[in-house]
Amino acid sequence: MVSPGHRIVAGVSGGADSVCLLFVLLEYAARKDLKLAVVHVNHGIREDAGEDASFVRLLCERLQLPFFLKETDVRALAQREKCSLEEAGRTARYDAFREAARSFGADRIAVAHNGNDRAETMLFHLFRGSGSRGLCGILPRRGEIIRPLLCLERKEIEAYLEKRGIPYRQDSTNREDEYTRNRIRHHILPVAEKEVCTAAVAHMCRAADLLSETEDYLGMQTDRAVKDCVSGIAAGDGKPGEREDGTCAGFTVDMAAFCKLHIAVRRRVLLLLLKRLSPGGKDISAGHVEDILSLFEKEGSPRIDLPFGIRAVKSYGVVRLERETAPPSSAFAPRPIQVPIPEESFGETCRIGLGCGGWAELSVFSAKKGQKIPQNEYTKWLDCDKMKKSLVFRFREKRDYLTLADGRGGIIHKSLQDYMVTEKIPREKRDRILLLAEGHHVIWLVGYRISEYYKVDGNTKRIFQVKLTENRCGGTEEKDGGTCQGTVVGGRGRRQDQGDRAADQQGL
Questions:
Q1: Cα–Cα distance, 338 to 340 (Å, whole number)
Q2: Quick check: 485 and 241 in contact, CB under 8 A?
Q3: CA-CA distance, 437 to 418, in Å (whole number)?
Q4: Cα–Cα distance between 453 and 502 in angstroms, integer?
Q5: Rounded-to-integer distance, Cα 162 and Cα 2, Å
Q6: With 90 as the cut, is the pLDDT of residue 236 above it?
Q7: What are the φ and ψ backbone dihedral angles of 311, each rounded to 5 degrees?
Q8: 330 within domain boundaries
Q9: 365 vs 125, 381, 438, 453, 465, CA distance in Å?
Q10: Chain centroid offset of residue 217 CA
Q11: pLDDT value of residue 34
């Protein structure tokens, strides 16, 4: 959990668990050269909450530890966020912990969950219909959060404090049955320990450890499956292009590859995608996963509507998961946006905004013999001298057309509508694909291909480079090596038109 020299912020409420955590960390810090600080959160719920804060402050003064106090109105937060007091309190605590960690320069945040908390969480999740992930309960470590007392039961913690004469505060709300977890704590676990097995909590924690190992393995299998059969998600870190609320515009699941997976992995893939589409990953259940699984068995192009405006549609050998309430999947404004062609400027870039955080970076430079044409799906080289009219980024219009190779060394015109039908682009997606056009001649149907007429060839004198990025999360949606990690436009994700790819590789 920690290494010598680490700086740790400990969340201390003043109760037995957190006071025990602090003294255990103090003993360990003396041996491992750790730097400690304490953060206390006053939720503003209990009248005696100020006394808890004073207790922890005095404790830190005696121990000569840095002390951070955060006061927040949890009831107001719960009302504002339309969530329970429990959930609001948890949000407020972890926000305060992270704020204190930044101030202290901490590597870790230590919290005082114990084995009983883990058992209570397992039962809570089980009763509410959780899968194996929820039955893992609380994990010993998640990112920078560590839980050093998770291997101890509450009775061991209290015995530790009593033996050393260490005082602590009693939280009156822990004795109430207002919260669901308290009812499990007071009325279910005690009966299990008394009537079933005295080591019930220890056995549940051991089972949680085994389930966590299984989850790790299944998680690796799920990540591998996502790379094999899902587009709209990056191959490396599993993060799709996100909106401001952290959700993704949509995913496409290849049916042939998906149906080869074990049913357990299929369910996990769908659950992962649904959680990425829903705000906060909430209110997605096993029933929703089963509904989508049924699509793979149905004939035609059935559709299922799910919470948060999510819909699942079967079409052309794929199942698409999308947020209907989302802006166009291109993530760009629907109004036409004029595209200037900059003067040749030795690598200088003109940047234009395309709405909703999208950008186009434009540059013109001289063609050189042997230049390697980019293979990136969202960076294209075009023959600048073939462009006679002003260019525009927009969505499709009537009379739009592409130029394609005719297979005999020439080119032919093909209506954009016919091309989309041939490429089996779903009807509801066609009006949401961004394109770059000169009049009605489509230069680039983003995510699919560029017109044959504008491709760079041996006669090209000047190259017009167009690069699309999406800067909604504070950076571009491009990663080293030219892999786009966002659903910047409504294209095919990792797939690229085979003719376009072959022509690019040949420098045509």
A1: 6
A2: yes
A3: 17
A4: 16
A5: 27
A6: no
A7: -130, 150
A8: no
A9: 60, 10, 20, 19, 8
A10: 20
A11: 92
Rounded distance between C-alpha atoms, residue 418 and residue 398, angstroms: 12
Say which residues have a Cβ less than 8 Å from residue 455's Cβ, sequence separation at least 6: 382, 383, 503, 508
3-state secondary structure of 399: coil
Q: Does the structure show a pLDDT above 70 at 241?
A: no
pLDDT tens per residue across span 478-502: 333 333 222 223 333 333 333 333 3
Q: Vertex 119, ends 273 and 264: CA angle to 5°?
A: 30
Tabulate helix, strand, coil % of the chain (nearest 5): 40, 20, 40
Based on the domain organization, do 359 and 446 belong to the same domain? yes
What are the backbone dihedrals phi and psi of residue 112, each rounded to the nearest 5 degrees, phi first?
-105, 30
Phi then psi for 127, rounded to 5 degrees? -65, -30
Residue 18: which of 112, 156, 96, 155 has the closest Cα?
A: 112
Examine the fold and report which residue of 183, 206, 229 is the final residue of a domain before the chain moves on. Answer: 206
List the beta strands (DSSP E) in 73-138.
108-110
Using DSSP bridges, classify how beta strands 441-445 and 435-438 pair: parallel, antiparallel or unpaired.
antiparallel
372 and 457 housed in the same domain: yes
Q: How many CA atoms lie within 13 A of 485 on its CB side?
A: 19
258 with 314, same domain: the answer is yes
Q: Pick the closest to residue 219 from 264, 170, 183 (CA basis).
A: 264
Rounded CA gap, 436 and 446, in Å?
8
Task: Give the model confidence (pLDDT) of 425-453 as tens digits.
Answer: 877 778 888 899 999 999 999 888 999 99
Specify whether 305 is located in the same domain as 238: yes
Structural domain including 276 reads 212-323
Query: What DSSP string runs through 267-336?
Result: HHHHHHHHHHHSGGG-S--HHHHHHHHHHTTSSS--EEE-GGGEEEEEETTEEEEEETTSPPTT-S-SS-
pTM for the whole thing? 0.55
Query: Which helix (H) or strand (E) element contains residue 469?
Result: strand 462-470
Instruction: Find, among 315, 226, 318, the residue nearest to 274 by Cα.
Output: 226
Residue 13: closest CA among 93, 99, 74, 103: 93
Q: In whole angstroms, what is the distance from residue 269 CA to residue 296 CA?
A: 14
- DSSP class of residue 128 equals T
- Among all chains, which residue has been given the structure tokens 């525009």? 392
Span between the terminal Cα atoms of the chain, in Å = 54
- Give kind and range of the element (H or E) at residue 503: helix 498-505
Residue 355, beta-bridge partner list:
358
User: How many folded domains does the chain comprise?
Assistant: 3
Distances (CA, A) of 262 to 115, 204, 225, 246, 402: 33, 28, 10, 29, 42
